[in-house]
Amino acid sequence: MTRPTPKEEAVREQLRDRDGASAPEEAGALERPPEEAADEAAVAEPEAVAEREQEEEPESERKPESERKPEPEPDPLAKAEAERDDYLELARRTQADFENYRKRAVKEMAAAGARAKVGLVRDLLPVVDNLERALESAEDSDSGLAKGVRLVLSELQGVLAREGVEALEPAGESFDPTVHEALSTRAEDGAEPGVVLDVVEKGYRMSDTVIRPARVVVSA
Predict the structure, then answer these.
(1) pTM of the complete model
(2) Which of 209, 212, 183, 207 is CA-nearest to residue 123?
(3) What is the helix (H) or strand (E) element at residue 59, kind and residue range?
(4) What is the 8-class DSSP label of residue 66?
(5) In this predicted model, which residue has the larger pLDDT, 71 or 109?
(6) In DSSP terms, which residues pair with 215 in a beta bridge?
(7) Distance (Å, rounded) from C-alpha 151 to C-alpha 159?
(8) What domains, with CATH codes, occur in the chain?
């Protein structure tokens, strides 16, 4: 058997050294604990999923910003029509408010006029009372003064009648506290209780408003 040369010995020695160094590394790789292998699999799996999702991304989502369609501009005509409708609605509301104000003002003016008229009539009633008393004192006198008083009283009563004023002379009627004012009571033979016996002062009513209640004596 031929003895190897020194050079061949050196080559064989290098090969043995190399094989001896790589064998433990491979054995160590084969003998890794299962926990390390599981961790590496857990790390690798999300990365693989992300790569697949990126590859499966739709073509439309991968378009650059320059290729995306811009949002449409608002229609000027539609905008103008909307503004027109807003102004028309505002005008209608303003007109309705003004109409309500006008009606309310008319009603308030009518009420104020009625109150003023009632106040004037109330102030004239004592004048009517005094003229009637003057004629009662003159009785059936035909003097010029009595005729003048009758004329003035008649004209004044006509004015009051045209304004809707009527006298309340409730003699013989049942007492009504809404239009009568009892000054006293008196027992009267044959008279039922609560009947007006005498009218001390006439009352007056204007439309549905009692300007002055009739002052009366009531049977007991």
Answers:
(1) 0.53
(2) 212
(3) none
(4) G
(5) 109
(6) 181, 201
(7) 13
(8) 77-163 (3.90.20), 167-220 (2.30.22.10)
Round to whole Å and give the CA distance between 43 and 62.
Answer: 26
Residue 173 has which token pair?
């009627």
Q: What phi, psi does 181 have (nearest 5°)?
A: -125, 115
3-state secondary structure of 184: strand
pLDDT of residue 9: 73
How far is it, in rounded angstroms, from Cα 43 to Cα 105?
85
Mean pLDDT of 142-170: 91
DSSP state of 174: B
Structure tokens at 185: 């009571």
pLDDT of residue 205: 94
Q: Which residues contact 197 (CB under 8 A, 6 or more apart)?
A: 171, 186, 188, 191, 216, 217, 218, 219
Which tokens hold the place of 106?
Answer: 């008319």
Instruction: Tell me which amino acid residue 208 is.
Output: D
